[in-house]
Amino acid sequence: MTHRVYIGLGANLGDPIAQVERALCELRCLGSLRASSLYRTEPLGDADQPWYVNAVAELDVSLEPEWLLRELKALEQKLGREPTPERWAPRALDLDLLFYDDVILDLPGLCLPHAGVESRRFVLEPLVELRPGLRYPPTGQTVEELLKKLDDPLRVEKLPHIDRPPEAGLLEVQ
Fold this sequence. Notes:
Number of strands: 8
CATH architecture of one domain: 2-Layer Sandwich
Number of helices: 4
Largest sheet: 6 strands, antiparallel
Oligomer: single chain
Order of helices and strands: EHEEEHEEEHHE
CATH topology of one domain: Alpha-Beta Plaits
């Protein structure tokens, strides 16, 4: 059985564009994948750090949520993420499981949908680009509706289109 999931990607250390692109290529190993454009995003919390590069990936996977989360954490480490106790600290890569079908779940270490999805422009803009009609399970509102009513002061800028090599196997969103 396959499940439609959405994963948020972000990086602001090293070469963030390359980090996010590499993570997208690695995620392709988990299942069929579509990716949003890349976005340049003002950092949350401590503003004295580089801006982030963010994107969202849509995957069809056969893994259960806990196993998928383990795979995402392993990929973060593989691509250079250093553990830090600080929230919103700079990082080489951050992968967040945003949605898993329409599952609502609250377990230690795993909350679905991901906490804060509905209030973060850097998540909603790429989600709307991929699937404007995607419903936020707790309220039934679409991500497009959530974005329209959002009051988030953080600046988010869509980066110019990046031509991905055909071997990356990513479907472009125009």
